[in-house]
Amino acid sequence: MSFPWAKEYKPSHPFMQWMDEKLPIPRLVYNAVGGGYEVPRNLNYFWNFGFLAGLCLILQIVTGVVMAMHYAANTAVAFDTVEMTMRDVNWGWLMRYAHANGASAFFVVIYIHIFRGFFYGSYKAPREMVWLLGVVIFLLMMATAFMGYVLPWGQMSFWGAKVITGLFSAIPLVGEPLQQWLLGGFAPDNAALNRFFSLHFLLPFVILGVVILHIWALHIPGSSNPTGVEVKSESDTVPFYPYYVAKDGWAIGVFAILFCAMVFFFPNYLGHPDNYIPANPMSTPAHIVPEWYFWPFYAILRAFTQDFLFIPAKLMGVMAMFGAILVWFFLPWLDKSPVRSGAYRPLYRKFFFFGLLPAMAVLFYCGGAPAQEPFVMLSQLAGLYYFAHFLIIIPIVSAIEKPDPLPFSITEAVLGADEEAKLAPSPSATVA
Amino acid sequence: MAEADGVRRRDFINIAAVSAAGVAGVGIVVPLVSQMSASADVLAASSTEIDISSIQPGQAIKAIFRKQPVFVRNLTPHEIEEANKVDVSSLRDPQTLEQRTKEGKTNWLITMGVCTHLGCVPLGAGEGEPRGEFGGYFCPCHGSTYDTAARIRKGPAPKNLEVPVYEFTKDTVVKIG
Amino acid sequence: MARILSILVGLFFTVALAWSFGKGAYTQITDPPAATAEHEFHLAPREYTFVSDGILGRFDREQLQRGFEVYKEICSTCHAIRHVAFRDLGALGYSEAEVKAIAKGFQVPVFNPATGEVETRAGMATDYFPPVVYAGQGTPPDLSLITKARHEGPQYVRSLLTGYQDQPADLLKKFPDSKTPDGLHYNPYFANLNIAMPPPLTADGQVTFSDGTKATKEQMATDVAAFLVWTAEPKLEKRHQTGLAVLGFLLFATVMGYLSYRNIWAGKKH
After folding, report:
1. What tens digit of pLDDT does each residue of A85-106 get?
2. Least CB-CB distance to A377: which of C25, C88, C250?
3. What value does the mean pLDDT take over residues B85-112?
């Protein structure tokens, strides 16, 4: 699974040798994130976000386990136990704010990670499986985040649960019974709260499992890189340790500064005030919105205001909302271009920067805005582009585009052709 | 020479960076550990007032203090005499009844209802419960037997039943804690 | 084949959206939504900087005590602060004896198993502020979290308390149906302009501050808003202090990490 020049794990201490024979975990770590994993030398800072995403997952699991020690999943006391955590538990406020903002941080990191994949063609062969598993992780994250948001049992928790489970009622025939089954009742109540708590605790560990598969699948072809040219020789790569450990290490520092600034100084900025009002099944807040990371998909949901070809608008919205993510699963087969990186695809690059990114920005903005004009019309246009981008533009562009010439190798891209030539006779020479 | 200095400086920076990561790790662990200790609301609920006016000599009641039982017992003159008869130096945990009660209120024996062996609630405070061969309290879990001053006399418990901090706010009201 | 299928699916969604867009745009032109009184006359809270605002925000204990006095004298008639315990008031600078005295002034409900009835007794330091029974019009919300449960919470509370006024003639001219109903009160800072709460601050000097500060309406509104910041976020000061220390350390650690990264990559072009 690795390049022939990758260093082999050679334990020197007798205990480590014994360990390597019986249970080679140190070898696994060495080959996964140690000196044994050879990585393209030219990764830019967008490649730090995979590592950061892993860190966010750990952060969420740790703070979440702590929060669960002080929480009670019962509609009568859930809100109060969260407040008790904030006020009376030692450092409870820190755990709670770190967990709430940790979810946002996780999504920020993941969105950047995904869009890096879009631009650099990380989804393409031979990394389709990495991509597919990544989309699965994203879906699991959304489910987990949604259920977690219900737990404090504030107004937004309750109405979020009601509205999102209401989406399922759009499905013909089985919709209503399905919604009742999901909630264990006619409306969100103890049954729903308890199952959401249980699943909210379980799913992160499922995510962890899929993350391990994601990394495993990645290590088979090795990491992609900004040129999209595959690794050819030893001079193209550096070992993960110490090179990328050091780079990820200081990136974690930058991430931690931004994250802590949010947690300590603006902990409620990304939240909604209404969730500090206990759930009231008798009164809907004036303006219900999900958390910001759902806004693009929420905007797409609301953009379908008219019945279409005998399909009710509600069902269209639900299909489109799920479709907007499911389409990512097909991306490796929709984009047939042999060139991976957007850096060498002039036409694709234009659509990425002047089409997809602005459309996403509009969807983000409109999803959080009230369901009025001009926001609905804007999200209709942006949503229209979104589907056109993935389902129409990408297949056509990948067929007609004439890519820029690619560098011969990663080393050439980094050092220029002359120095590459100098290295050619002895590919094993280390680059000073 | 200059190169040697350069190498040393570089080593120093790497060591400093790794140490900073270590400090951060410890900094994260501190709140994670301390969140499990008793929260402010638990620590605050630390005093209980008990009305003792209805307890007749020879009777006892169980009250709750810090989520644990407290025995408040009105000793009869006979029980006080029994307790004072004992040779203190022969006890496992030598204390006199005077030391375990308030001056002038020797008949009010107030102790935690928590066996000092492994924390069961001894019998003897409730109506009709066995009081053991020394007339005090008897712990059914492992047979610790306490006398009328709630001192350990027999069985595995190492200490007398604990006397909590308390005061009489009125003649008929005790404030524990 | 896959390409054709994909384009067909793409057309399905894009045409559906274009259809929605077209119909929406048509309605927008032929039947534009009517303006509402809320939309035109609602005001954002007035600007004001509380000492608790900003990254160095802290509490002014004297102000919190004044705010508590306003709460106790005026607001507590209708509004509870159920997440706050009397013992918490120690953080405002009250001594233990003062906290006990304050607690004693409130009657808290207790269930008496002997009679099966809920009775009341004088509060103790460990009790929470008791619920308030309110029989009049409207439902007075619990105030413990109010400054976090509204946009620009503290400014909102301050503006609302001082924002009562007569309904502008303009409004009635433009929206004749929007006259404030009987029993409600016009207040442009309230979401739908008409609030059930009668003006709580009626006159200067309504509360006598124990620190001698002159109790103007403005002062009372500001102080009680500051107090409600504290009830909503009693750990605010500790959060800010911890945050500064953490950020200071992280800056140092990150610089070290960056230098170490430069070190390790020295001579490696990438």
Report:
1. 999 999 999 999 999 999 999 9
2. C25
3. 91
Residue A6, pLDDT > 60, answer yes
The domain A29-288 having CATH identifier 1.20.810.10: the answer here is yes
Record: contact A392-C17, CB cut-off 8 A? no
Chain B residues at the A interface, defined by Cβ less than 8 Å, are 17, 21, 24, 31-32, 34-37, 39-42
At residue B167, the 3 state secondary structure works out as strand
**Is A291 designated active site?**
yes
Confidence class for position A422, pLDDT limits 50, 70, 90: low
The predicted structure's pLDDT at residue A417: 66
pLDDT at B7: 65
Nearest by CB: B45 against C126, C250, C260: C126
Q: Is A88 close to B32, i.e. CB distance below 8 A?
A: no
Look up A157 and say whether it is catalytic: no
| Tens digits of residue pLDDT in A144-187 | 999 999 999 999 999 999 999 999 988 888 989 999 999 999 99
- pTM here is 0.92
- Dihedral of CA A284/A287/A291/A296: which sign? positive
How does residue C270 score in pLDDT terms, banded at 50, 70 and 90?
Answer: confident
Residue A306 and residue A365 in contact, taking contact as beta carbons nearer than 8 Å: no
Tokens of A424: 């050619």
List the one residue out of C68, C69, C80 whose CA is nearest residue C130. Answer: C80
Q: Which residues of A touch C3 (CB under 8 A)?
A: 334, 336, 395-396, 399
What is the token pair recorded at A192? 């729903």
CB nearest to B17's CB, from C249, C260, C266: C260
Tally C-beta pairs within 8 A across B and C: 41
Q: What is the ipTM of this complex?
A: 0.93
Q: Where are the domains of chain A?
A: 29-288, 298-401
Asked about A2 being catalytic, the answer comes back as no
Residue A402 parent element (H or E) = none
CA–CA distance, A353 with A403 (Å, rounded to integer): 17
Long-range contacts of A413-419 (CB under 8 A, 24+ apart): A413/A42, A413/A227, A413/A229, A414/A41, A414/A42, A414/C269, A414/C270, A415/C269
Helix or strand or coil: residue C49?
Answer: coil
Residue pair C158/C225 in contact (Cβ under 8 Å)? The answer is yes
Q: Where are the beta strands (DSSP E) in chain C?
A: 107-112, 117-122, 185-186, 194-195
> Does A427 score more than 50 pLDDT?
no
Q: What is the pLDDT of residues A346-363, one digit of tens each?
A: 999 999 999 999 999 999
Burial of B59 (0-12, 13-18, 19+ CB in 10 A): middle
Q: Which residue of C has its CA nearest to B14?
A: C260
| Contact between chains at B35 and A89 (C-beta distance less than 8 A) | yes
